[in-house]
Amino acid sequence: MNRLEGLEETTTLNNGVNMPRLGLGVWKTDNTSAKESVKDAIVKGYHLIDTAKQYGNETGVGEGIKEGLAATGQNRNDLFITTKLFNGDQGYESTLNALEGTLKRLDLTYIDLYLMHWPVDGKYIDTWKAMEKLYRQGKVRAIGISNFDNERLQDLLDHTDIVPAVNQMEFNPINQEKDILEFNNHAGIQMEAWSPLGGGEALSNPQIKTIADKYKKSVAQVILRFDWQKGVITIPKSSHEERIIQNSDIFDFKLSDDDMKAIEAIDKEKRSLWYPDFTWHTTGEMQDTVDKWDDSPANYKD
């Protein structure tokens, strides 16, 4: 399989929607860089783009989508756009209202996958019920969650009607979330990886470097191939055209069972962010804010 064929590969979500298995993420990217990287990614064959209101770059992503489609002659339905409900917008009525601002910033009429960014304690059940309504209204093609541990996910399943299509988690060789991956697979929920490369600790791991040398690939390419073979959707971030191409050049080799096991053994269950670090559900302890950039339009007050 070549690079472009791999980028066409999809998985079928539990509601029948087909989602690309490899895409572009834009966390910690300003609007100007997001516009350029999204356009470059579309031109280079990507179909899945992942953003969030909290990232402060939905406007730039929307502009990149428009320019990428114009450059390639594709249509909106050739792309799969994911964004996420802002923590500060959680709650039933505020969730229903928040989508309109996101659609305006992205300059889109619908979202392919709408994720609850974090399970805000005391709100995530009502929030999900509102997302179910948005789904039934056809404003989003699929709904999912992000950063849900098994306890909160089971609570969600016990009190709502629609099983999430996706759970987007931190997933990489250093943090493989084996229990959550197993739970998701059992429940028919597709795991998607944020931070799929695992940062410096994974990228400098000598065992992965030895495996990369064996296949004549970069460490990043081996990690993304590992994620792929684990059945996890990946959205590596890059603002460089060359790296965008390299990150999708993972379809002309396959890791052996032994090499997969070697990478699995690297797991340290080491999360970079998790519940003890997030106190946004406790009023006053952490301000819930949208990332602001020097090039941010003043349109984040819905």
TrEMBL record:
Family label: Belongs to the aldo/keto reductase family.
Sorted UniProt keywords: NADP, Oxidoreductase
A Gene Ontology molecular function term of the record: oxidoreductase activity, acting on the CH-OH group of donors, NAD or NADP as acceptor
Keyword Oxidoreductase: yes
Active site per database record: 55
Keyword Signal included in the entry's annotation: no
Pfam families: Aldo_ket_red
Binding-site residues for substrate, renumbered to this chain: 117
The protein's name in its UniProt record: Aldo/keto reductase
NADP-dependent oxidoreductase domain residues: 22-267
Site entry (Lowers pKa of active site Tyr), positions: 84
Domain of life: Bacteria
Organism: Apilactobacillus bombintestini
